[in-house]
Write a structure and sequence with these properties.
Four Helix Bundle (Hemerythrin (Met), subunit A), 2% strand, 3 domains, mainly alpha, 463 residues
């Protein structure tokens, strides 16, 4: 991760990633229309449609916000609207799906757009995770049973340390140390103990400097941890889904934008437990990594000509225009990943009892496919593969703890595997993959409901 201040756009461009030409052209048209004080809804709706077809759900959600606010994009708000439109178009041309989902710059615009809509309609609030985790399942996380007396003492310590953080005192280091210590004491051994996630998120907020700087999202996170302590004191066995989503999005953000290094292995493993993947650094610094990427792109250009849209090296897959070299590399990766996924699936479901090793094997294969699809720009494939990877991760978890109730239902997992295979066959034939909405929705439901019945009731009451 990085510890420096964030630039206007955060991640490295993805020169081998797919483009959505119709969306890019429609956004340019919308920007010109806005400057001429003409209607922008038409081109924005075309952009949203193209992004939906591409499976770029976070980007579609951003454009939906632009559509909603467009009737109010006049007078003093017009410059802000155009700034959001310009920055989003710039991000779209960088073809980095993780940046489009996790960029603080884009989220700041997204929040402003929705705040403007809320001034004219019934108020509502958006959160970072609404954009970052669009379409993704959230695995249930547990709260370890503890005595009310011990939790009461710990919460008193936590609240005392929380005050300097919320008030923004200059020297908050000692207070943050105490908050970290309290969270560490709350951690259990369970893979999905929610305090393990909270500790990892707190560490990320300190590494990137947001906790010390008094960032509003960091303050909100520490305050929500205090509420989580109160809920644990009430004996709830599952953490509120809203807390898990927010902590997970904050933990993922910098790793998604900047990649992970060897020392981040534990955090990356936790992200895998919750269905999220990251890229690993290929160089020591972001500058050297950018030089490496440019060198690779130059070598590819020299080998085959223009890689950015020339007719000889670009291929259309529905709304997407993909680099032929990256497309061919993806097909090889996808073929190997699907073969491994098939082997793991057959082994896991062949046993009379859940097989953790086979499930882990299948999950890793699904994640490899998801990461490769995300790099190419196949949004529908990436989302479904990541969700299937999470489902297999939960299946392995259920096998390890000896409780089949924590395993997602078998049929949605099989349907997701079948849907992925059908999507990849279409991609290999040069056609756009079908919309993943139906198998993805069934898989999301299966993952989020995979918990003992008594816990499910408690979870639904606090989500």
């Amino acid at each position: 991760m990085t510890t420096v201040d964030l630039p206007s756009l955060e991640a490295l461009p993805n020169p081998r990633g797919a483009a959505v030409p119709e969306a890019e052209a429609a956004l340019v048209e919308a920007r010109h229309a806005s400057e001429a004080q003409l209607a922008v809804v038409g081109p924005l709706l075309r952009a949203a449609q193209a992004l939906r077809q591409a499976g770029w759900l976070a980007s579609q959600r951003f454009v939906d916000a632009l559509v909603l606010v467009s009737p109010y994009a006049n007078d003093e708000f017009a410059p802000r609207f155009r700034s959001a439109l310009t920055d989003f178009h710039a991000a779209l041309t960088r073809r980095n799906l993780r940046e489009l989902a996790c960029s603080p710059t884009l989220f700041a615009h997204y929040r402003e757009l929705n705040a403007q809509v809320a001034r004219h309609t019934q108020g509502y609030v958006v959160a970072f995770e609404d954009l970052a985790l669009a379409g993704r399942p959230i695995a249930p996380a547990t709260l370890r049973a503890s005595s009310a007396a011990s939790l009461g003492l710990l919460r008193a310590r936590y609240e005392q340390a929380l005050l300097p953080v919320l008030k923004g005192h200059e020297d908050v280091g000692a207070a943050l140390d105490e908050l970290d210590a309290c969270m560490a004491e709350l951690c259990g051994d369970d893979t999905y103990d929610v305090w393990r996630l909270a500790v990892a998120c707190a560490h990320a907020l300190r590494v990137n400097g947001r906790a010390q700087a008094g960032d509003p999202e960091a303050k909100r996170f520490y305050a929500r941890c205090n509420l989580l302590l109160a809920e644990q004191g009430h004996g709830l066995p599952l953490a509120p889904r809203s807390f898990v989503r927010s902590a997970l999005a904050l933990l993922w953000r910098d790793y998604a934008l900047y990649g992970a290094a060897a020392e981040d292995a534990d955090a990356v493993e936790m992200l895998h437990d919750y269905g999220l993947t990251v890229d690993w650094h290929v160089a020591a610094t972001q500058a050297s990594e950018q030089a490496w990427e440019q060198s690779a792109a130059d070598a590819e250009t020299a080998a085959g000509g223009d890689t950015t849209g020339g007719s000889g090296v670009a291929r259309d897959l529905g709304a997407l225009s993909v680099n032929v070299f990256a497309y061919e590399d993806f097909l090889q990766t996808a073929d190997a990943a699907m073969a491994a996924l098939s082997v793991g699936t057959d082994a896991a479901f062949a046993a009379a009892t859940p097989d953790a090793a086979a499930a882990e094997h299948a999950g890793q294969a699904a994640y490899r496919l998801g990461a490769a699809a995300q790099a190419l720009g196949l949004g529908h494939v990436a989302l479904l593969a990541d969700a299937l990877g999470l489902a297999w991760r939960r299946h392995a978890y259920a096998a390890r703890i000896g409780s089949a109730q924590w395993a997602p239902a078998r049929r949605p997992m099989e349907q997701a595997g079948e849907a992925l295979r059908a999507m990849l066959l279409r991609v290999a034939a040069g056609f756009a993959p079908p919309d993943s909405a139906v198998p993805l929705a069934l898989l999301v439901q299966a993952v989020e409901r995979a918990a003992p019945a008594t816990d499910t009731t408690s979870s639904s009451s606090v989500s």
